[in-house]
Every structure is written in C-alpha cells, then in structure tokens.
Design a protein that fits this description.
Layout (H helix, E strand, L loop, with lengths): L1 H20 L10 E8 L6 H17 L3 E2 L2 E9 L4 H13 L5 E4 L3 H14 L3 E3 L12 E3 L6 H13 L4 E6 L2 H16 L12 E3 L8 H10 L3 E4 L3 H12 L8 E3 L3 E2 L8 H13 L7 H18 L7 H8 L13 E2 L6 E13 L2 E13 L4
Parallel strand pairs: 1-3, 1-4, 4-5, 5-6, 7-8, 7-9, 9-10
Antiparallel strand pairs: 2-3, 11-13, 12-13, 13-14
Length: 374
Amino acid sequence: MRIRVSAGLAAGLAVLLAVAGCGKDAPADPGSVKIGLVVSLSGTYQAVGTDMRDGFELYLDLHDHRFGGRRVDLVVADEGDGAPTAVPAATKLIQSDGVVALAGVVGGGSVAGIVPLLVENEIPLVASNGRPNLTDPSWVWTTSFLSVEPGRAIAAYVKEQVDGPVFAIGPDYQGGHDELRGFTDEFARIGGELANPDGQTLFTPFPATANFLPYFSQIKASGAKAVYTFYAGKAAIDFVTQYRQSDVADLPLYGIQNVLNYSPDLDNAANRAFVAAWSARHPDRQPTTFAMATYDAAAVLDRAIAAIEGEVTPAAINDAIASLGEIDSPRGGWQLNLTTHAPVQKWYLREVRADGGVLANVMVQELATLGAGE
C-alpha cells in the first residue's frame, strides 16, 4: 500500500511541477544563438588555428555553453591558408548555416577578403588574430591587435639595444607586410638603420619557403648587428631552427615571438583563472596569445549578447559591442578603440626561459601601450 501511495504522490508532484513550470513566474528559456568560428584547421597555420578554436571552446565550457544566457550553437569552419579558402568558409557560415556573428580568423589577408561579405550581409566579425588596417571596420572588431603594432611596440627597444643596422625579413603576404612595416616605419622614424642592401625588407615566398639558409647568407653579407623578423606557425619553427644552425646564429633575433600583448605568467586574477582552466584541459600546451584573444572574442560576444533586449540580430550584436567599455582579460584590462575597432592595450617584451621545468615565453618588461591614438 505504501508503494502505491508513494508512486501516486510522485506522479501528482510531477504534474504539479509541470503545471508550475508553465506559469507566468517560470523563467523562460531565452533560446539559442548560432555563432560561426573561422580558424585554420589545416595548412601552415593549423597550430595557430587549433589554439584559437580551443580558446573559444574553453570560454564556452566555463560558461555553460551560453552567451548572455542563450545557448550557443557553434559552427566551426576551416580557414585553410588564406582568403581563397577563408571566404568560401565564411560564406557558407553566413548564407547556409545562418550564423548571427563570426569569430576567429587567423590571417590578415583572410580578414580583408571576408570584409565585403560582412558588409553585404551586415554580419559582425570578432576577429582574434592580427589584422590589417581597414578603411571601413564597421562590421569588424578585433580582440588581438593590428598587424603593424608588434613591430611598432618593440622598435624603440631594438634601437636602444643594438649598436648598428638591423636586417628585416619576413613572409611575402598581407600579414608579413604589415608586421614588418610596423617595425621598419617606426625604426626609421626614431633614427634606426636597416642593414638590407636596398633599405627594404626582404620578403620570402609564402608558403613555399622551407629552406631559409640562402637568406641567412644574405644577412651575413649585409653586416647586420641584429635581425628583426615575423613568421608564424610551421614557418616560424623552420626559421628559428635553421637560424640557430646558421652562420648568423650569434646575431640577436627579434620578432613577434618576443613582443606580444600577452604572456602566460602575467599576474592578475583573470589570467590565473584562465591558465588554470587551460592547463586542466591541455596539460601539454601553454596558452598562447591566439588562445587568449579568441577566449576574449567569446567574452566580447557573451557580454554583447547579454546587453541585448529582445531579438539577437547581427546589427544588435554589432551595436552592443560598441558599448562594452573595459574588458577584464587574462592580458589585463583593455578596451576597444571605436575608430579602429582594435584594442587599446599594453605590449610586453617576452623571452623564452625555463619556467617550472618547461620552456615558456616569460614576460620581461612592459614596452608600450598602443591603440589609443589611431
């Protein structure tokens, strides 16, 4: 008899709960939002794209897979090596998958290629790697940096440290042009001299260059006292590995691997939480600036969508991002410049050192705060 009564009570309670759930005081499910993430999951920058994807997904994992209380339906697309594959990937996300916003994008050339698509469809992109200056960034927001800024941030330090001319070398594509121009323009402005025979950066074919030894011979012949470069992904590994085995191995080597807007050892509450969560999921990898900036891209979308009353449309997201103010980030607090749509943030000199038994990029000193004056 007790069993029957208990079952009856349970059934009755279930009915009451169901009825209560339909009442006017029950919290309504705000629904879901579909977000597209474009990152390189193949090709030269696969490692960069993987870090970016993992940074975005880490934020989702830590926030119940919701932005502004709404469930996130994340659709990931492979950017490949640049605009020829990035544009079709973004087109599918917008026109077939129906996303309300895009995030990610590894290459500056990919960003430039996607911009007309964003404008035509009025879809915001929260980009999270270096990007070029844009004539009209109305639908593009950047949580990482403008591609000219790393070189600009370190130029004065290199001028101070190096007694003589510096050789500039990098990859022949949009991002390489921007990264090197940031350094060479600022270096020249403060009185620095390039060792390159024609006074111009030496650009190497991309992505075809895997053997850098002939270029090191040119550096040796130039009489350079140091080298400034930018490479990323596999090309960076090839360049540095061969550099250490070359006749110019004793020349100081400066580049984006030594100046960035983030270091995993920054001492702030947001970074301690980020590094701990990242390490729990990826114990074999330290968080990179790519992971951090895409984690922040998710944070920007989360805060923007939380601020929207009513339907979450692409235009509403775009407007909300413009009103966010300061972002609490693992890199430290930063905010968006409403003209360039890129961060106003600190830059750090970093050095590869042993840290807790592993090699890591450790912050040496602050270099500059950039982004406010553009």
